[in-house]
Every structure is written in structure tokens, then in C-alpha cells.
Automatic annotation (TrEMBL):
InterPro entries: Na+/solute_symporter_sf, Put_Na-Bile_cotransptr. It holds the Pfam family SBF_like. This is Bile acid:sodium symporter. The keyword Lipid metabolism does not apply. The chain crosses the membrane at residues 39-56, 68-87, 99-119, 131-153, 165-186, 206-225, 231-252. Keywords: Membrane, Transmembrane, Transmembrane helix. One of its GO terms (cellular component) is plasma membrane. The keyword tRNA-binding does not apply.
Length: 330
């Protein structure tokens, strides 16, 4: 087991730096309003590039493996939210009510694309199915996540207006994404050739949202009302949630008789939640609310925990002889 598996990735370190900067030098007043406009433009560019990068052909080509994808999407958009509600008696005492709302938000998000595919590849799983599932999950999430969020936390987040939220998702996320899909005809090759540095656009957009969200939260007294033990409890809560999902994905995929390569794909694609989609979407759904900082904090922690835990698990899968399978989890 390599020490590198437990070192936070560069994006997480930069996000922690943005949180620290917001805590020391929060943007506020008229500057905050201008900053919000810049952030919205950056998010629009982010989803435009997502649309330009996503191959529609890849998505439809893999949909024939419908049993696998149906199971993954059921975990991502049905089981995760149900677990968030069922585990409330455990999660609330650990993290507190305010952070629990953020846990519910992360439960509503689509799966990540890059890490799900990378981990499936590392573990020796079904890579084409992982590509299809992750890409389709990201696309479906644009439509489905806002409705799941409304069902999970709409009653507890009175600042969210359903009409405004859906309109915001369409204008700020969906339309740029569709524009990117259309523009893919002309710029798809260029995007593919330059994806190594275009990822900076993704990261910059996320960092802008994190800094703006925590600036607003800090000026509203975030660190004075959020006990340190709640943050420690949040780490434990994320571990509990991820652990339950990993056990269930492994057990259910065995129950349905999937071969090992498909089970690997199911485990890694169904247990992930997207930071790249979740943070910008929070900016649209919860813009201007004092609680936005606490809403994305669980997602930030869960993202890093899922990378560390699943990297170790992927190494375990990779080192197994192909005729051997993991022993059933108890």
C-alpha cells in the first residue's frame, strides 16, 4: 500500500487554500457581486467545455450493456439519496444538522467521470462501460440532480425557489453544455488535443466557487457557529456513507451475477460523487445563501476520501489473479 494513496490531490490542496484565503480575506460588498458574475461566466465556460469534450457516440455505444448501467444509475440517483435519509440517525449526531444538509446534497449528485474511469482502469475493470456510465451519469445529473435536491432538502432550504433553481440550471449549465455539444463539430479535435491544460479551466471554476462560497459563509459567521467536532464527525460520516455504498455495490453486483470486470466498474462508478459538477451546481442552486459553504464542505471531504479509499481498493483488485475474486464482504 503506497503512501501516495493517502496524500491529498492537488485540487483538494488548492481548495483548502481557497478556504483559508476566504477565511482571512473574504470578498464582500460590491466586490462580491462582481466576483459572482465572473464565477457564473467561468461555470458557463466549464460546462461548454464539458459538452465539447463528451463524445455522444461513446455514450450511446455503451448503452447496450443496460443491466450494468441501470444498476449504477440506481445506486447513484436512488440508493445514495435513500441512504442519506436512512442514515440520518447516525449522520446527524456525527456531523450536526447543518453539515447533514450538505451530505444530502452530495447524495443527489451524479458520478465523477475522470476518477471513476481511472480507478476502473487501474483495477482491471470494464473500461468502455465505465466511460459510458460516467459520461451518461454526468449528463443525466444536469437534469435529475436539481429535482432530487428539491425532494431531499427543499423543505429545509427555504431560500431555494424551484422555478429559479431549474431556470438557473438550464441557463447556466444546460445551455452551455448543449452549445459545447454543437461546437464539438468544429472544436472537438482541438479540445481533445489540449485537454491536459484545459483541465485548468475546470479547476479554476471550482476554486472560484469555493472561494466565493466560503467568503460569504465566513462573513455570515461560519467558523463561529460550526464546532470543530462537527468537522471531525463529518469525516467519520463520509467514511460511513462511502463504506456502506462500497459494501452494497459489491454485494448487489455479485447477487446479479456480473463477472468480475463488470463488478469492478459497478463498484467504482456507483460509489463516486462529482466535485466538478457538484460545486458549480451548488453555485446555481444556493447562490447568495449563507449556508453554501457548509453545503459543499461535505462534498470536498467526501471527494478526497473516496479517492484515497478507492485507490487502495483498486490496487487490491489489480493484484488479484483474474480467476480469483474478492471474498464476500461482511
Amino acid at each position: 500500500m503506497k503512501l501516495k494513496s493517502f496524500i491529498p490531490d492537488k485540487l483538494i490542496l488548492m481548495m483548502l487554500g481557497a478556504v483559508l484565503l476566504a477565511s482571512l480575506l473574504p470578498v464582500h460588498g460590491e466586490a462580491a457581486e462582481a466576483f459572482s458574475v465572473v464565477t457564473d461566466l467561468a461555470i458557463g465556460l466549464l460546462f461548454f467545455l464539458h459538452g465539447a469534450k463528451l463524445s455522444t457516440k461513446e455514450v450511446f455505444a455503451g448503452l447496450t450493456h443496460w443491466r450494468l448501467h441501470l444498476l449504477i444509475f440506481s445506486f447513484t440517483f436512488v440508493l445514495f439519496p435513500i441512504l442519506g435519509l436512512l442514515l440520518k440517525p447516525v449522520l446527524v449526531p456525527l456531523a450536526g444538522n447543518e453539515l447533514y444538509i450538505g451530505i444530502l446534497y452530495l447524495c443527489a449528485l451524479p458520478a465523477t467521470v475522470q476518477s471513476a474511469i481511472a480507478l476502473t482502469s487501474m483495477a482491471g475493470g470494464n473500461i468502455p462501460a465505465a466511460v459510458c456510465s460516467a459520461a451518461t451519469s454526468s449528463l443525466i445529473g444536469i437534469f435529475l440532480t436539481p429535482f432530487i435536491v428539491m425532494m431531499l432538502i427543499g423543505g429545509q432550504a427555504q431560500s431555494i425557489d424551484p422555478t429559479d433553481a431549474i431556470t438557473g440550471i438550464v441557463i447556466k449549465l444546460l445551455l452551455p453544455f448543449i452549445a459545447g455539444q454543437i461546437a464539438r463539430i468544429w472544436i472537438g479535435g482541438w479540445v481533445a488535443r489540449n485537454k491536459s491544460w484545459l483541465k485548468n479551466v475546470d479547476q479554476s471554476s471550482i476554486l472560484l466557487v469555493v472561494y466565493g462560497a466560503f467568503s460569504h459563509a465566513v462573513t455570515e459567521g461560519l467558523w463561529t457557529r460550526l464546532p470543530i467536532m462537527d468537522i471531525v464527525g463529518l469525516v467519520v460520516a463520509c467514511l460511513v456513507l462511502l463504506g456502506v455504498v462500497l459494501l452494497l455495490t459489491n454485494a448487489v453486483s455479485r447477487l446479479f451475477g456480473f463477472p468480475l470486470e463488470d463488478r469492478i466498474t459497478i463498484v467504482f462508478a456507483a460509489s463516486k460523487k462529482s466535485l466538478a459538477t457538484g460545486v458549480p451546481m451548488a453555485q446555481v442552486l444556493f447562490a447568495g445563501t449563507a449556508s453554501m459553504g457548509t453545503l459543499i464542505l461535505p462534498l470536498m471531504l467526501f471527494h478526497q476520501i473516496q479517492l484515497m479509499v478507492c485507490t487502495v481498493l483498486a490496487q487490491r483488485y489489480a493484484n488479484m489473479p483474474r480467476e480469483q475474486e474478492l471474498a464476500p464482504q461482511s
